Amino acid sequence: MASREFAFIDRLRLLATDPAARGLDDDVAVVGDLVLTHDMIAEGVHFLPSDPPASVGWKLVAVNLSDLAGKGAEPVAALMGMTLTGDAEWDERFLSGVGAACEAYALALVGGDTIALPAGTPRVLSMTAVGRAAEKIPSRSGGSAGDVLWVVGTLGDAALGLAALHADQEAEGPLVEAYRRPVPQLAAGRELAPRATAMMDLSDGLLLDAARLATASSCAATLDLDTLPLSRAFIAEAGSDRRARLLAATGGDDYALLAAFPAEFDPLSLSLPARTILARIGTLTDGEGLELFDAGGEVPLPEQLGYEHRAQNI
Amino acid sequence: MASREFAFIDRLRLLATDPAARGLDDDVAVVGDLVLTHDMIAEGVHFLPSDPPASVGWKLVAVNLSDLAGKGAEPVAALMGMTLTGDAEWDERFLSGVGAACEAYALALVGGDTIALPAGTPRVLSMTAVGRAAEKIPSRSGGSAGDVLWVVGTLGDAALGLAALHADQEAEGPLVEAYRRPVPQLAAGRELAPRATAMMDLSDGLLLDAARLATASSCAATLDLDTLPLSRAFIAEAGSDRRARLLAATGGDDYALLAAFPAEFDPLSLSLPARTILARIGTLTDGEGLELFDAGGEVPLPEQLGYEHRAQNI
Question: Which of residues 74-133 of A touch B (CB under 8 A)?
């Protein structure tokens, strides 16, 4: 998120005083027993003009469902907004991807809006996803010093996939798939939510998002780079040294989950879906800020903690 | 709405099979006791680059609340998506307009998303408004032959305001205000909803929207042009002859309400807000299609029944 987005959101916060807004710090709003999230994706920012349209449709749904996953909510319904820029085949294929994702996650598409824009205008796609909340909806701010931080899913795959596509538009493989077709961790999120003291989905990079969770919880976070969950495809491509791990920790677009649990609770005791990847990556501590270390000792923080969704030509 | 939007929505309908979607025919979706609507507005299509940013913010809220008004729902919360294109002053003033409308209608802004786009990209603004439904949520499809059609609010003001702005960017006055700052008929909508057999808000022009309501209700509609509610400002500018009335019936952007009631029910008996303008404009009949008449007899249907939100340079 670019700095002017931050400034704007600070201004927005002054308007969003209702408790349902959760200070805008939480990716979701809570209305009754429903959890609502609204995410937009734009061509050239969140997806590439060369991405297959069906994957863009899938991604629009998945990024919204990932916000629900981060709160342990069950998908109920979605409303979609899209701009039509005169390429009916693109639109049709986009829609097939939306449909595939809705079917995969039992999400009912219940409404929305379309607007015609001049050909050549970058596409802007929006979705509001509505979920049914579990008894407890973990915020970002409920963590305490001593809590242990866990990640569900692997990190860095999408960042490598995007880099591969920048180098070669025709690139393929699991890393490109991770970028184009993220998988929201809905089932794991539902299992973790009742026990997590704080939880969120990881969309902008682990370091940036962990710093946000720690700050919201009035804590510092200490992360062990050596413990980050990396996929075999990631390691095959980038290795697993400190440099590779820093890339995984800052690349963004992971749509993994970050959750804090009291030290005495072991999330491995939960009945998580088969093949769930769960890694203990650090702790919340007294103080503020972020501290990184690995087997070699303390690791200086990189200048960019996460992926900022800046438009390419700004 | 342009024809390719129609084609796209037909395709979308195949996806939106959940009863909550109401066949996508209804401007809103119903989830539990909540009514949800999602509208986007785009620069150059729904507002002018020269419009005061605060009025654009107001309009984004008002067009969404008008959908809630059409279903008799009480505003509860909204999520907003917006593109930031590098003009912080515009964004700030836009937000003050959003804030003013939220305050005026007790709408809590509870979340949303912002994305940075290259300067010069047309702004795209989205909102999902959530309302609490009354006991009965009138659809478009509940009307029967014999029902009487009523309009709440005046017609044609915004169309004249937009025409004035096209002729002179500096134009002012009540017609320009009607275009820039529509007033959602929330209080009237709540009163009418329990008794209406069918109801909707009028955003695309009376003739187009009345044809939609009639079609959804498996009826024809007969409208008396002479009875259309026109404001004094409209009449002062355009007169009230057949030509002026056809303009009012097709101009769009009215954000008035169209409701059908059984012939024996008189909506004037409801306790509507002071100064509510309520006009009996026609009837639903057996058959299909739209019939127009005035004191001079039958009036041929104009080629365009309503305002199509086509991008200006398509």
Answer: 76-77, 79-81, 83-84, 86, 88, 91-92, 95, 98-99, 102, 108-119, 121-122, 124, 126, 128, 130
Segment B2-9 long-range contacts (CB within 8 Å, at least 24 positions apart):
B2/A84, B2/A116, B2/B308, B2/B309, B2/B310, B2/B314, B4/A84, B4/A86, B4/A88, B4/A116, B5/A84, B5/A114, B5/A115, B5/A116, B5/B309, B7/A88, B8/A84, B8/A88, B8/A91, B8/A95, B8/A114, B9/A114
Which residues is B298 bridged to in the sheet?
B293
Contacts of B44 (CB under 8 A, 6+ apart): A117, A118, B122, B311, B312, B313
Tokens standing for B246?
């056809």
Q: Assess contact for B267 and B258: CB atoms under 8 A.
A: no
pLDDT higher than 80, residue B314: no
B:17-36 residues touching chain A, CB 8 A cutoff: 17-18, 20-22, 24, 26-29, 31-32, 34, 36
Task: Tell me how long chain B is.
Answer: 314
How far, in Å, CA of B43 to CA of B49, rounded? 6
Which 169-198 residues of chain B touch chain A by CB within 8 A?
Answer: none
Confidence check: pLDDT of A240 > 70: yes
Q: Are A56 and B131 in contact (CB under 8 A)?
A: no
The pLDDT tens digits of the residues spanning A91-112 come to 999 999 999 999 999 999 998 8
pTM for the model stands at 0.90
Which of A6-15, A84-93, A241-250 bottoms out in mean pLDDT, i.e. has the lowest?
A6-15
pLDDT of A314 reads 27
Distance CA(B268)–CA(B260), nearest Å, equals 13
Would you say A299 and A246 are in contact if contact means Cβ atoms under 8 Å apart? Answer: yes
Is there a contact between A11 and B41 if contact means CB atoms under 8 Å apart? no
Q: At what angle do helices A88-104 and B3-15 cross, to 10 degrees?
A: 20
Residues A226, A43: Cα–Cα separation, whole Å: 35
Lowest mean pLDDT among A133-142, B3-12, B134-143: B3-12
Best CA proximity match to A217, nearest among A298, A158, A140, A103: A140
Question: Phi then psi for A158, rounded to 5 degrees?
Answer: -65, -35
Q: Which of B68, B107, B290 is nearest to B200 (CA)?
A: B68
Contact between residue B259 and residue B152 where contact means Cβ atoms under 8 Å apart: yes
Residue A133: the pLDDT is 85
CB atoms within 10 A of CB A68: 30
Task: Mean pLDDT check: name the lowest of A306-310, B101-105, B183-187, B232-236.
Answer: A306-310
Residues of chain B neighbouring A10 (CB-CB closer than 8 A): none
Tell if the CB–CB gap between B111 and A2 is shorter than 8 Å.
no
Mean pLDDT across chain A = 91
**pLDDT averaged over every residue in chain B:** 91
Cα distance between the two ends of chain A: 13
**CA A178/CA A232 separation, integer angstroms:** 13
Cα–Cα distances in angstroms (integers) from residue B106 to residues B99, B245, B288, in the given order = 10, 35, 40
| Chain B touched by A5 (CB under 8 Å) | yes
Q: What is the ipTM of this complex?
A: 0.86
Beta strand B278-285 pairing with B148-152 = antiparallel
Residues of A in contact with B311 (CB under 8 A): 115-118, 121
Closest CA to B96 of B50, B126, B62, B53: B53
